[in-house]
Every structure is written in C-alpha cells, then in structure tokens.
Amino acid sequence: MSPTSPPPAKLAENIPQLMHHLWKPFLHDINATHFLTKEGYYYKYPKDTHRWSQPLRKKLLILDVDTRLDTGPGGIMNKTTLNSKGMTGRTAGMMSHYLYAMIHGYDYRFIRAPSYPNRHGTWVKVPMIREALKTHKIVVFLDADAIFMYPQLPFEWLMRLWNITDNTLVAMANDPNSPRNRDANGQVMQNTGFIIAQQSNRTQELFYNWEQCPTDIKYKGCKRWGKVWAHEQAAFSNHVRYDYNSTEEVRVIPCMDGNGAPYIGDKTCGGVFIRHHWFHKDYPIKDMHQLILDAFLYN
Which region is the signal sequence (predicted)? Predict the structure, then answer.
C-alpha cells in the first residue's frame, strides 16, 4: 500500500475502536473531583452539582451540521487522501469533534442540511438538533470553528462541572459581555456555536418555538433575526429563553469555559474547555495538532 493510498476497508471500519483503545490509558476519571488545565487553572466540582457517574456512550451524540459540502482541497469530503498539513480549518474542527466522539465511544454525525429559505445559513442547526434529540438522550452541537481542548476529558465530567441536571433542556456559554452582545433587555446573549441539548418533551417544545421564532406568530419582532445578525442566537436570547427562565432549564456555561480563546480582548472568555475561533477560522488546525501532542506528553 502506497503512502497516499486510503486504508483498507477493514481497518477503516475499526478506527473508532482503535482510537478508543489508544486513548484509554490517558482518559480522565469520569468521577474525579478536580482537573488541572495546562494553563494552571484548577477546576473542582461544587458539592451540590448533578453527578453523571456512568458513561453515556451512544446515548450522547456529537453533531456537526452544515449546508456546505467541503469537496475542495483540504476539505473533509475531498475524495483524495486527507493531509494533516493541507486540511482546512473547518476540516480540522470537524475532525476534532469526530476524534472526541471515537475516544469516548459517543455517537457522531455530520449532517449536510438543506438550505433554509429566507434565513441565514446558521439557522439549520436548530431543526437538526431537534431531530437528533429524537434518537439520543444528549446532543452536543459545535460550530466547525469550535474545538474540544482536552480530548481525554469525558463530556460527562464537563456536564457535572456545569451542573447539567435531569431538568436541563439546553446549555450554552455566554458571549463576552459587551454592548454588541446584549439582548434587548440588556442581558448577555448565549452563544449558539456550542450547544448541549437534553431530550424531553419540553426540549422538543423549546426547539420548535425557536425554529418558528422568525414567523412572528409567538414572538413579535423576531422576524428580523431570520437574516440579521446574530440570527438564531439573537432569536434565542431575545425571545425564546425568557419562556424557559428556570436556571436549571436553560443553563449558562461560563464564557471562560465554553467560548472564546486566550488571544481575545475579554480575558474572562478564554475557551478553556471549548475554544471558539470566531475570527480565525484556520486556528483549529494548529489546535488539533497541539492537543493531540499534549495529551500524550502530559500523561
């Protein structure tokens, strides 16, 4: 087999199991009480957080959604063998999501969604998450420019850290606290580039209301967010979340943990666990290379 040949079919079929066993010695204990990041941040569970003590495995879905199909050079759907040095930032981001799912035995899907008539393309995540919740207990959606910074860290551990309970419908990280990122009530918007959703009838209702928001039937004034920035994010933050205002139902993840990056101006949004490169779409390439190296060097 030449260096540029694709792997044999049997090997390709077993890659998820291979990745799981390769990383197994480095996995953080799902019931560990603390975690020290490479930046030196010490995280410890509060005593009263909900405990996710058993692996969710295929009950948890890592989800990528896009209307675009990347078939060009370095694209994830390009028919040539993928080159780690030539991949695009979007490919690196989605590959990191798939790798994370394989490591922990979670399910993974990439959905090419149809374009949404009369709406900005980012709206497609809302109905796709709603559909995915019909087959999975937990759905974790990420934009392609967002990346898991610690592949060895189980998602159950993060859900306990952020106190995702049985009553939680959705959880998202706050945006940086600036006037541009506040809703009409002056509250900081939650960023839809990283969403945790938990199946329930009430969650289905929330996502239905969210998807229907720009029709202006239930939420007057929401129509503008079909096309105007911040699209589905503004619709959720200005309208939908106020119908589900229990702290447990709509959980706010600290911006430091689940949004931003160390290089942005707001140092309270460091992207410690989920790094979101809003303005540097190629950065996931370097991150993916580095986090794989770090996992083996520091363990």
Answer: none
For the chain, the average pLDDT equals: 90
Residue 151 lies in a domain: yes
Which residue is listed with tokens 């799912």? 101
- Cα gap 99→44, rounded to integer Å: 26
Element (H or E) spanning 42, and its range?
Answer: strand 42-44
Task: Provide the domain limits for residue 88.
Answer: 35-297
Residue 152: CATH number of its domain: 3.90.550.10
d(CA 142, CA 192): 8
Under DSSP, is residue 265 helix (H, G, I), strand (E, B) or coil?
coil
Cα–Cα distances in Å, from 94 out to 46, 142, 219, 262, 269? 32, 9, 33, 21, 22
Q: Rounded to an integer, what distance in angstroms lies between the CA atom of residue 45 and that of residue 50?
A: 10
Say how many residues make up the chain.
299
CB environment 181-212: b (16+ within 10 A), e (fewer): bebeeebbbbbbbbbbbbbbeebbebbebbbb
Strand partners, 112: 66
Distance CA 286, CA 299 (A): 20
Residue 18 included in any domain: no
Most confident of 76-80, 257-261, 281-285: 257-261
Beta bridge partners of 136: none
pLDDT-wise least confident of 70-74, 129-133, 157-161, 193-197: 70-74
Express as a percent the part of the chain with pLDDT over 70. Answer: 93
Number of domains observed in the structure of the chain? 1
Q: Which of 213, 173, 180 is nearest to 196 (CA)?
A: 173
